[in-house]
Design goal:
single chain; 86 residues; 3-stranded antiparallel beta sheet; 2 helices; 30% helix
């Protein structure tokens, strides 16, 4: 269990370091404006999807990612967030 946590922390820290070193190459995901009351496939693709949910060993923090897709560029971007217990 501890080795799995160490591997995850190492992976996320290297991902974070790599993403911070490439500040000029970060793409922004275009925002879709709702022009009709219907949820079209394009609008659904513009929503972020939660992934990589992990809870810290002491249970005080939750780490998760939100992946956004860019249909025009055929790419995706994963943003990581941490929730702290208050």
């Amino acid at each position: 269990m501890k080795s799995k946590i160490v591997v995850y922390l190492l992976f996320f820290s290297l991902t974070w370091f790599y993403s911070c070193s490439k500040k000029n190459e970060v793409e922004t995901i275009p925002q879709k404006k709702l022009t009709s009351p219907y949820l079209t496939p394009e609008v659904l693709w513009s929503f972020g999807r939660i992934n990589n949910l992990e809870v810290s060993p002491d249970g005080t923090k939750i780490l998760f990612g939100v992946r956004y897709y860019n249909i025009e560029k055929n790419s995706s971007q994963n943003d990581f967030y941490v929730f702290y217990q208050v």
